[in-house]
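Re: export button greyed out
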Amino acid sequence: MLRGVSKIISPELFTIRKLDASLAVLLTIFALGFVGSTVYPVQPTAVVGPLETPPSQLYPLGTDAYGKDILAQLIAGIRGSLQIGATAAAISLLIGVLIGLMAGYKGKIIDNLLMMLTDIVLLLPSILLMIMVAAYFKWRDPLLVSIIIGITSWPWVARAVRSQTLSLKNREFVNLSKMAGLSDFRIVIRDILPNIASYIFMAYVLLMSGAMIAETGLSMIGLGTTQGVTLGNILFWAQVLEAVRRGLWWWFIPPGATLVALAASLLMIATALDEYFNPRLRGS
Amino acid sequence: MPIISPFIIYILRKGAFIIATFFAFLLVIFALPRAIPGNPVAALLTQIFQQAQANPDTVKAVYRKFLEEFGLNKPLHEQLFDFISRLMGGDLGTSIAFYPRKVADLVASYLPWTLGLLIPAILVAWAIGNLLGAWAAYRRRTRVDNALLPVFLVLSQVPYYWLAMILLYTLAVTARVFPVAGAYPPAMSPSLTSTFILAMLHHYTLPFLSIVIVAIGGWAIGMRVLVIYELRSDYVEYSELLGLSDKKILGYVFRNSILPQVTGLALSMGTVMGGALITELVFSYPGTGYLLFRALSTLDYPLIQGTFIILVSTLLVANLIVDILYAYIDPRIRVSYVGD
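Workaround output, generated via the alternate export path:
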């Protein structure tokens, strides 16, 4: 729901206490992902125990249909999902910011063409585009999955960056730089970009949560990464091997709940950041 | 100079853009397999050809059909021309996995289930979400809003199919209130009898709820913000000074705030559709999501392409309908739209 999210940024949403809570959730999940395998050194891909055992002292989150440890998979899955989320978000951001800056700063025909392209991609559902592209690749490493997600999720960033650039480019400091004979490139880098940096940072956080949800969707339909573990990957196998109908709740609840917690805390952080960077939105 | 109604100009412009988008999409569909290194379609063709050596007749027929429809031995521009002209004639090719069934017929038999699930779910979620969002805004800084907002925020981040798994597990597997799979009991065949319709609704409830509950979150968040801004506008203050009832003022506020949400409806449909396709998998619901999954796992490229073309066309038509509706309810467009 990235598009939905971008319009909800509002002054009333958050108090600092809610920011604290979301940061705590986020850091807990990060810690689990990055330090978890040191504290709990079990191989996520190794068969370590009896099949389909519910959580116990020996297997804190139980085992799956192959006897693989779910907690170990969850730890690796968090890392895998964060990695894809971070890479895909960087790719989207790069495309979105470049197109938005060009369209907004250059204007006229370039603006028209780029915005037409943006509107077309915006109208086509990104998850369908992702499935369509991924279907043609037999092997998909995390980088490829990130690229597929990245090249389909940028339009709303491009639109927002364009409108911010439009409002900045006629300010006095930009005109001064023009009179001083600076090149367009330098003006964009030194006058425009720093002024939209806070927005870019916020967009990155939102893109990242969107990308992790997209990765899960791709995985669920069988087109996720074919290397390594992600949260979507765990859910895919739980779905294919009928974990739900056979009552193996410990297999599909933890990865889904972790994903929701990650995405929701990132959304709340982005909202709070926006409030902080845009003092005009605060108060009242 | 004849005066064309601004309404007509608006519709024509929107229509032209949607047609342009459709052709851009077709171009992507056409270019994708041909641009990816190692041409996956050609690779599949070789694979079928090798099978044909061992298992002659049917596989050879599949091979010939496939070769003819993709026309890989022809120059690129001829391939594109063939592709578009066949499509305009309503021919989406022949399925490989379900050979010799036509892709168009296959998708047509699965599509009603998807639309029957999607359209009511989107509309119901939209209505409930907007009402709840407006209510939360009206009761801002009270316990109602403080309790509702975090729920909306978390809901908006839940994948439809994960909620589907949770509902399936709690209400069908554990509590046994609802059936665990399908769109109707396997022993029944579709008919217009009351027993069948009841059984169908029984199967419909969980997939429907898993889409509605999640989608409510996003709508409510959006509406809440819109109403909060609207409540600050001058006319609200003026109406209060005039002594109008809260109910009356809220009615105006709601009407003004709902307009952007109508545009949002058009934009969100694609996202909901993507999520709903995967939700069908969780419930083994016989819609296009289920068909697409079969097509993807057998690398049935004609069927994959055909499903996408139908889904995207449906979506674009729905978008145009929402745009027309929007122009109709927004007097600013109805009366004064004259282009840029």
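Chain B touches chain A through 67 residues (CB under 8 Å). The button fix ships in the next patch.
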